[in-house]
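Researcher: I'd like a structural prediction for the single chain below. Treat it as a standalone chain; there are no partners to consider.
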Amino acid sequence: MNALSVHAPVLLVATPLLAAFVVPLVAKLGSTVRNAVVGVFTLLTASLAGLVAANVLAGSGAPSVYVFGANPLNLTLPSGMHVPIRILFEVDGMSAFMILITALVAVAATLYSFSYFKEHSGGEMYYPLLFLLLAAIFGMEETGDLFNFFVFLEIAGIAACGLIGFRPWRGRSQEAAFKTMALYTLSGLFVLIALGLLYGQHGGLNIAYLSSRVGAGMLDLVALGLLVVALGTKAGVAPMHMWALDAYGEAPAPISAVLVASSQASLYGLFRVLFTLFGAAVSVAALGWFLIALSVLTLFVGVTMALLQKDIKRLIAYGAVSQIGYMLLGVGVGFTTSGSRPAYGFVAMQGGIFHMVNDAACIGLLFLAAGAVHRASGTRDLNRMGGLGHDMKWTAALFAIGALALAGVPPFNGFSSKLLIYESSFAASPILAAIAILSSILLLAVFMKVFQAAFLGPRLLENVREASRGMLVSMLMLAVVVVVFGLFPGFFVDKLVTPAAKALWLGRDAYVRAVLGG
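Model: Treating it as a single chain, here is the predicted structure.
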């Protein structure tokens, strides 16, 4: 393995971090030079993400450990102090899967941003914040240490709040940023308290090390509860989803798409805590039903509140919240049936994990399309739109693809992952399958109503223009993922989803052995 492959995990974080410092400097040379540098760094970051994922998936998702400093992991300092585990990245099949999702959204959002912000200043601040957010997300997905996960989580929160409130002339954007900052700060405090409890109990914060030591003691369970609440909040799980609606709705359209990847990184952290860290220490059935209860609540809140919305971006935001419910349902059913019906449990895990990439693609596509609609019409109010399809045929078609995929209509990607969830949840309870199917039907009704209100009927607005070529290309990129993943789901389930599901479902021991040996 060459040096680039060996150091790709750390370069994946270092490259966007470097870009965050370089872009403000080159911005003084003009927007053309700045955009060229941003494009180069984005493509380099995406290439590194592909390299990291390819190296891990080539080994069937087995954990790959990158240690900061000299090897081996066990180190005796000149002072004689023994350091058993140091700072490290540990990338397995699940981490690689999340890295690919983030890279996909990053490329689409950056390309879209070139056209979206062409007429506005502030790119010297916008792109550094975007790269800082991407560096933090990749760090969350790669780190094998809880304290560094907390650090990356906080960096992501700071960058996200700056991007949500990026348009200071919009009072609602500032309000959304403040609300997000308040809830992010509270959830970050919960994570920090949990880490303090775990460190006080076990003397370390390495995930593999803690996994070998945590039990069902009171302090460990309190730490688990704090982590579940904190990460559930940052993932947008109901009833802790309040920030997400304002954040998704008020952030610039490309940032709304990236925030989906950020929320999924927090959801990944939750899954890592539940499966890898506490998987051998808690009641699997009880935890599974707890996740199922959260999933049903999230589905109910997302779908029913979407019915009442007139703001197109806020409506999509509720749709994004509802999709978190499907992911939790798949993982919760996997937990619940792992002992009694493991075959169904694994299918449920595959469905929940597969839905993460499908959700990122179709929700990202919808947010980008909504941004194009807002740019062309000057409004986000569905009651003031109408007939946009006459002048925005490509945007209308791409929006329809995203809406159908979100509702789980074949042959788009949302159907493939939801079918796995329907099948496996029926094994746990037919009622769960009925709730999941009903939610998809209601979502279909909601988004068909949106499509009719925005794109069909007579023209209500004058001087409406189609989205720019750059915006259309970025939307088309996500639409291709939606269609291809829907037409060939078996290939992607085998190559991407199954290694990720096995890393969580069966990979705890391998994750621990990669660091501790044995």
